[in-house]
C-alpha cells in the first residue's frame, strides 16, 4: 500500500485547484531521486528565547549497495569513501536539478550527513565535510559514462560536482 504523501513546506492551505476549480496534480520537486537535501538553519521555540540557531547540515545521499546504471555499478558507500586516498572523494553523477543547485550552494567547511539509501538499512552512516566547492562534473561529457548528458556543453555545463572528506 503506498504511503500518503506529505505536503511540502509552504503548501499548507493550498488546494491546488486549476482554472476550472478541479484539483490538479503537482509534482514533488524533491522526489525520491533527489540526492542532496538542504538543511537550512531553523529556529525552535527554545532557540527563539535564547536567540541562537541550531546547527545546519546537508544530507548527501549515496547508494550503499550495488546498482547497475547503463552497465556500470554506481554503488558508493561510506566504506568506499574510507578506502579513498585521504578519505576524500568527489560527488559526481548528480542529475537532478534541485540536488545540483544544493551542491552549488554548499560552501567550504560545511558539514553533511552521509546517507545510505537503496539498501537493507537506509540511514545516516557518517559525517563528511565539504572540502571543495562546486565545479563542472566531467562525467557529463564522457560518452561511455552512465552520467553522460549530450545536451550539456563544455562552455556552459549543466551539472556540477563537489568534493567531501570523511571525519
From TrEMBL:
Bias type Basic and acidic residues, positions: 140-157
A Pfam family: EVE
Every EVE domain range: 56-162
GO cellular component annotations of the record: nucleus
Major subcellular location class: nucleus
SUPFAM superfamilies: PUA domain-like
Keywords: Nucleus, Phosphoprotein
Role description: Specifically binds 5-hydroxymethylcytosine (5hmC), suggesting that it acts as a specific reader of 5hmC.
PANTHER family: THYMOCYTE NUCLEAR PROTEIN 1
Protein name per the record: Thymocyte nuclear protein 1
Amino acid at each position: 500500500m503506498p504511503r500518503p504523501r506529505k505536503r511540502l513546506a509552504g503548501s499548507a492551505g493550498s488546494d491546488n485547484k486549476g482554472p476550472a476549480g478541479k484539483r490538479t496534480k503537482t509534482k514533488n520537486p524533491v522526489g525520491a531521486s533527489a540526492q542532496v537535501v538542504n538543511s537550512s538553519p531553523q529556529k525552535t521555540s527554545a532557540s527563539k528565547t535564547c536567540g541562537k540557531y541550531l546547527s545546519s547540515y546537508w544530507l548527501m545521499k549515496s547508494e550503499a549497495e550495488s546498482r547497475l546504471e547503463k552497465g556500470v555499478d554506481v554503488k558508493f558507500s561510506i566504506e568506499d569513501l574510507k578506502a579513498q586516498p585521504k578519505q576524500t572523494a568527489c560527488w559526481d553523477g548528480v542529475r537532478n536539478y534541485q540536488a545540483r543547485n544544493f551542491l552549488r550552494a554548499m560552501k567550504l567547511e560545511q558539514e553533511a550527513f552521509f546517507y545510505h539509501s537503496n539498501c537493507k538499512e537506509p540511514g545516516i552512516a557518517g559525517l563528511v565535510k565539504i572540502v571543495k566547492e562546486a565545479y563542472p562534473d566531467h562525467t557529463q561529457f564522457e560518452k561511455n559514462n552512465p552520467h553522460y548528458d549530450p545536451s550539456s556543453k563544455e562552455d556552459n555545463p549543466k551539472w556540477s560536482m563537489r568534493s567531501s572528506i570523511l571525519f
